[in-house]
Write a structure and sequence with these properties.
Jelly Rolls; Chitobiase, domain 2; alpha/beta; disordered N terminus
Length: about 800
């Protein structure tokens, strides 16, 4: 039984027993805070400390309807107290503070806090102390308390045993929230949306936001404000909550162009002058941009002179994305030799040098920031491992994509080489991932289930925190292995449907809506895949009768079988639910899941509704082949071509076929390491996915080269031919011997064939490997790759 089947069985049993998929732990004794007063110190306070009590009171009211009073003095009546302050501000309360091991305030590191429950004496009301090491600490402490409250309408409780003292491990914990047309959500937001979202990120420990003020000048019809006005609003929000504002400011033009250079610096100077807060500038060396460090460094020196006039503590950070080895060496040599004052540190993002080597080469006085892509699932920095093509063709690059297990493995391996992160994000599809990264940035050893439970408790309901956690985890599990064989997908939907049915109030929350939509989407696609695979198998059986009924009639009947997908799609009620949830999420938060319906910026920018009818089998390619075959005049030739289609993936006894990039159709591919030991993909390859219309499914996903392919139990007396489809070249070896082709086409979908010397298969096995080809000068889209591999036994040897 594989992991998917185990999860499905667990979900089914849980539903049958009416319990959550994880054993529930008996509830601890709780204290009632529904009548509590929030007490803060009087007088002038830091911005973050001021906001701590406001965030707490507002979020409690949203979840319970209870309006907790904020006051400067201890209440005279016997009410519970939630005291929020800083270590310095707590001095007047020293006699009231609880003590642990002789220390009343154990946390002194920046942004740290302690939360302590002081039981009331002789039955009097208790006090909950939230003491920050500084103003931010008080705010993050209030957020941690919110994540652990049990909220219901008119009720607010906390486990009496709750007690924590903690400080962040990583000082930089941020997310990019760029207001631009490229986004699948942010361009539809108002300043109020941004403020609420930033508040909620703060609750999970986020201390910085990255804006995109100028790049991508396309107009979005959803924008409520100009780019300039929204960037000023974002800066003001960050100042209000005392968190850092980073600015992503690439140079997408040739820095040799002095007129454009001067214009860009003038634009930046206006930004620096008008924004109330800028903490750092991030300049990506590439993606976008294509300038060498010899031009980048003087440009940043000039930009820094303008920056420090208005933000004297701000620095400029640089990534080496798409720099070649010589340019990378030039940059590091310059930093070592000149120790530039403008440089705050190095940023490692997609297409950057290895993070480990970058940290080793960077002088210690400079910091190192991660720029991880947490928003995409394929053709990206951290693609889903061996993703089923049915998902790649429909969910695309930006679906709702909680990935707790993968990203926690990633963070724990690579985080120690950094001082933190600001993630790349283009919308709310990665909302859970933001909470996950913020929490891991605070403490990378946090239990992953605890993060899932806190997310579900805070955003869904304390009544469903454990079930919600399992439902979220199930969405990541849906991505594992071949979709057709992943029975857990149906179990995950059943879990979400249980939440939907038993707690209809959750449907008002956009986070619940988008994850519920993913659960329906996954199950809908699985059932479509199973149905359409069945239709294709039936159509191929019809083609097998072509010699009996005639080629044209066989094609007509096969097309009629394929056409049933247009009228007999399984579970149409699921599709209707998906579309309704997409519409609801757009109205609630501006989530653009369709280009036409919701003005999404592009088909692969989260527009999953536009792919609900995408064929999941080889129907389109087969029908195109039928068009070409009908033009032939000879019946014998027509039948031969139809037989080729029929036997494409079933080459006959003693022969083998692999759809190289498909997790369920590549039995001979040697995979090597995986993302549990090599999450950044340095030592192993992962199938890629391309947008290719009218192609076979197998041609739309591929590997650069399989690490190896291994065959055993071969006929020792037979001769074999290797056949390959793919793009470009295929420098293949069998047991280390370079094979000489008898047929060789570099065009996608056409065959390369290599006779295998009989001496290599006489031991009953053979191992295939591929040599590397230097294609660095080419666009990655033109790089060679392998899509399909056949090991064909010579038919004349059959029965020998």
């Amino acid at each position: 039984m594989n992991s998917s089947e185990r999860y499905a069985l667990g979900c089914i049993l849980c539903l049958a027993l009416h319990v959550t998929p994880m054993d529930a732990v008996g509830a601890a004794t709780s204290i009632d805070l529904s009548r509590a007063a929030i007490v803060v110190r009087p007088g002038e306070r830091e911005a973050a400390e001021t906001m701590a009590a406001t965030i707490f009171a507002d979020e409690v009211k949203t979840r319970t309807g209870i309006a907790l009073a904020i006051q400067n003095a201890w209440p005279r009546d016997d009410r519970a107290v939630i005291a929020i302050t800083t270590r310095d501000g707590a001095a007047p309360w020293s006699k009231r503070l609880p003590r642990r091991d002789g220390a009343g305030l154990p946390e002194t590191k920046p942004e740290g806090y302690a939360i302590r429950v002081q039981p009331g004496k002789s039955g009097s009301a208790p006090t909950v102390f939230v003491i920050g090491a500084d103003g931010r600490g008080a705010m993050f402490g209030a957020g941690r308390l919110l994540r652990n409250l049990h909220c219901a309408s008119g009720a607010l409780t906390l486990d009496a045993s709750f007690d924590i003292a903690t400080a962040p491990v990583y000082p930089i914990r941020g997310h990019q929230l760029g207001y631009r047309a490229h986004s699948n959500t942010y361009d539809a937001w108002t300043p109020e949306h941004y403020e609420q979202y930033i508040r909620e990120l703060i609750v999970f420990g986020t201390n910085s936001v990255e804006a995109i003020p100028y790049q991508d000048q396309r107009h979005s019809p959803l924008m409520k404000l100009s780019r300039e006005a929204m960037n000023l609003a974002l800066s003001g929000i960050c100042a209000k909550y005392d968190i850092d504002l980073w600015v992503w400011a690439p140079a997408s033009f040739d820095l040799n162009d002095q007129t454009q250079r001067a214009s860009e610096l003038e634009l930046l100077d206006k930004l620096y002058r008008t924004c109330p807060r800028i903490s750092a500038i991030f300049f990506p060396g590439g993606d976008p941009g294509d300038n060498p460090p010899q031009l980048v460094i003087p440009y940043l020196e000039d930009s820094y002179k303008l920056l420090v006039r208005h933000h004297p503590n701000a620095k400029i950070w640089v990534s080496l994305q798409k720099f070649d080895p010589d340019e990378i060496t030039y940059f590091f040599n310059h930093v070592v030799q000149h120790k530039p004052k403008w440089l705050g540190g190095l940023v490692s993002g997609p297409s950057s040098p290895d993070m480990r080597s970058s940290r080793a080469r960077l002088p210690k006085q400079y910091r190192h920031r991660w720029y991880p892509d947490i928003t995409h699932t394929m053709r990206c920095q951290y693609p889903v491992e061996w993703w089923d093509p049915a998902f790649a063709f429909t969910l695309g690059r930006e679906p709702t994509n909680p990935r707790p297990m993968f990203y926690s493995t990633m963070y724990r391996q690579l985080g120690p080489y950094t001082d933190g992160f600001a993630t790349y994000s283009d919308g709310i599809n990665d909302d859970f991932n933001k909470a996950l990264w913020s929490t891991l940035g605070w403490d990378p050893n946090t239990n992953i289930r605890e993060i899932l439970v806190e997310y579900a408790r805070f955003f869904f309901s304390s009544d469903v925190d454990k079930t919600g956690a399992d439902a979220l985890l199930g969405l990541e599990n849906n991505f594992q292995g071949p979709l057709a064989e992943n029975a857990g997908v149906d179990g995950v939907l059943a879990l979400w449907q249980r939440l939907e049915t038993r707690h209809p109030e959750l449907l008002k929350q956009w986070r619940f809506q988008i994850h519920l939509m993913r659960a329906y989407y996954d199950a809908y696609m699985r059932h479509r895949l199973l149905f359409e695979n069945g239709l294709e198998a039936e159509a191929l059986r019809v083609l097998g009768r072509a010699a009996e009924i005639g080629a044209d009639r066989a094609m007509d009947e096969a097309q009629a079988v394929f056409a049933r997908a247009d009228t007999e799609t399984p579970n149409p009620q699921w599709r209707a639910r998906i579309e309704k949830l997409g519409e609801t999420a757009f109205k609630a938060i501006g989530y653009q899941t369709s280009v036409e319906r919701f003005q999404g910026s592009g088909a692969n920018r989260g527009c999953v509704l536009d792919f609900l009818s995408t064929p999941l089998n080889n129907r389109v390619w087969t029908e195109n082949e039928f068009t070409n075959i009908r033009k032939l005049t000879g019946e014998t030739e027509k039948i031969a071509r139809l037989d080729m289609i029929r036997t494409w993936e079933n080459p006959g006894p003693g022969s083998y076929y692999d759809n190289v990039g498909h997790p369920g159709k590549s039995p001979h591919v040697v995979r090597g390491e995986n993302d549990s030991t090599d999450p950044s993909g340095l030592r192993h390859d992962n199938p890629g996915h391309a947008v290719r219309d009218n192609h076979r499914v197998a041609w739309r996903h591929y590997m650069r080269w399989p690490p190896a392919m291994f065959y055993e139990s071969l006929d020792r007396e037979a001769t074999y031919t290797l056949r390959v489809t793919g793009q470009g070249h295929s420098p293949v070896r069998a047991d280390g011997v370079r094979l000489v082709p008898s047929k060789y086409s570099t065009n996608m979908g056409e065959f390369k064939e290599f006779p295998i010397p009989t001496a290599l298969t006489r031991d009953g096995q053979v191992r295939l490997t591929w040599d590397e080809v230097d294609e660095e000068h080419m666009n990655w889209r033109q790089h060679s790759h392998v899509a399909e591999v056949w090991l064909l036994k010579d038919a004349s040897a059959e029965g020998a």
